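[User] I have long wanted to understand how a fold can be written as tokens. Those tokens are not coordinates but codes from a learned vocabulary of shapes. Could you go through the record with me and say what the backbone is doing? Thank you; the sequence and its tokens follow:
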Amino acid sequence: MNAPIDAVYTWVNDSDPIWRCMVSEARRQMGEEESGIESSASVARFQNRNELVYSIKSLRKHAPWIRRVYVVSNCELPAEIAHADDVEFVHHEAIFPDTSVLPVFNSRAIESNLHRIPNLSEHFLYLNDDFFLCSDMAVTDFFTPERHPCVFPTRHDMPYETQPPLSHFEHGALNACRLIERDLGYRPEKRLHHAPYALRRSTLQEIEDRYPDLVNATRARKFRHREDIPLATSMHAYYCHATGRAELRDIRCRYVDIGDPLFLLLVHPLSPLRRGKYQTCCLNEVRAMKLFGGLRDRIVVRLLDRMFN
């Protein structure tokens, strides 16, 4: 496959004082008691340990075929990448069709506009800043020779029968699955790995054209909501597979909750992660660590420094 491949990140910096003021004001105006929106207890998702810089370094090291990196944000970029030749900053105002809804802090709202990035390649990878490549990967690990995206299902079933409460992540995935089943007669059975998403701009636009009201409703929500449609993740993957334009693949991916006190066992120098067993990893923080958070952060930064510098 000779087509150019770009990479796209959505990113926030929780230490940016302007961003923090915008979040506080938005929550004050909406009221966290509003049904359906995420709680401020989820602020751990936004904590910044310079993961974006290391994630981009992992691309340069293990996927040098990436043409350009786009960072979608409403925060100032880290100094290490702000002037890099291969990195381009994309402000939310450049891709939201209705800028009156801004600012938004809902990753689902933001990702529903990725295909609107100017000059973005038709085929691209979408990553969170806590995604890292851990070994050399080829274009064919993400796209087939027919230029179809690869989809990476886990062994875990979709929680169709699970009783509430579900996370906002699970609600979003289920919303996508139920639309696919209703309209295309295909019932996705497995959850997806927390790994880079292989996407096509034209398919994202096709989904938007098919569900304009749902996409625009998601774009307008400032915080994650249980009725969101995750356009660039679950929806794109399952839609492509349901329409015969994706290939299910295995990927050696390790998910690590760095809020779990046992995470040290997973990042030990002799662990499979450090010894190159995995192609990708995700260092996520589901739960904020109440004790020893500072020590944990230093360990994470040291780990990333040793893996990607």
